[in-house]
Amino acid sequence: MAKEGEKGEWKEFIWNPRTREFLGRTASSWGLILLFYLIFYIFLAGLFALTMYVMLQTLDDHKPTWQDRLSTPGMVIRPKADETFEIVYDIQKTETWDLYAQALDKFLAPYNNSIQVQKNDECVPDQYYKQEDSGEVKNNPKRSCQFNRTMLEECSGIYDQHYGYQEGKPCIIIKLNRVIGMLPGKNGNAPYVTCGAKEYAINSFFNLMYFPPNGTFNLMYYPYYGKKAQVNYSQPLVAIKFLNVTHNQDVNIECKINADNIPIGSERDKFAGRVSFKLRINTKN
Fold first, then answer.
1. Where's it found, cell-wise (predicted)?
2. Is residue 134 domain-shared with residue 273, that is, in the same domain?
């Protein structure tokens, strides 16, 4: 009997036909509760939308309001196999170095002279290409300077489609990461790249050729204004050709950027402004 009484109490709690209450509340009570929460959540949604709207009014579509970045841009090499910084191949085995040539072809395709002439300007070298806004009037989209593939000469892939890999004189390409507003160099001195054997690789000796001459990043490619403001921007490149690397031996190489106002390394990132990689050219004995 006790169990039947408890069962009846539960049924009456769920639906009481005498008072017409559902879960202890009448229809009007449930209606008021639902109306309260409806108004409450509409208010919260409106407050969130208003907050987002006010915040978005402070942002610039073409330039970040705040930039938390290192004072020294990172460096990247091409070609790059997978995620490793190693270039290892056998001169006699075409399949081991052809993938590097193909990767460079793909990377350099946007730098073809015909494409650069259509999209970008022929700028005055050795000076910054500044395109300032006029008060509230935005000077967008901003123009960019041509970086023609032919400027890489022997490492352009135009005169040697194998980029020197088939003869043991490979080319690698270096670029700086994009940093909005950066003005590298000082007093008209353009930043430039130098490469050499790492300090512990004292037995590694080789000669290098740089393209463009002296491995410079010309000032006319700076400042960079951002992907939206400068849609056709072509990052300047430096190519390094290794002329007499010792074969059948690991050669550990470090390249770094040199500029009057770009520090090398920092407490936050000791590799800032430099890149290290291994080069090994194998030949049959």
1. Cell membrane; Membrane
2. yes
Q: Is residue 212 part of a domain?
A: yes
Identify whether 64 is part of a domain.
Answer: no
Which residues are bridge partners to 121 per DSSP?
145
Encode pLDDT of 56-101 as tens digits.
877 777 666 666 655 678 889 999 766 678 999 999 999 999 999 9
Domain interval for residue 51? 2-58
pLDDT digits (tens, 9 = 90+) for 151-209: 999 999 999 999 999 999 999 999 998 888 888 887 788 999 999 887 655 556 678 99
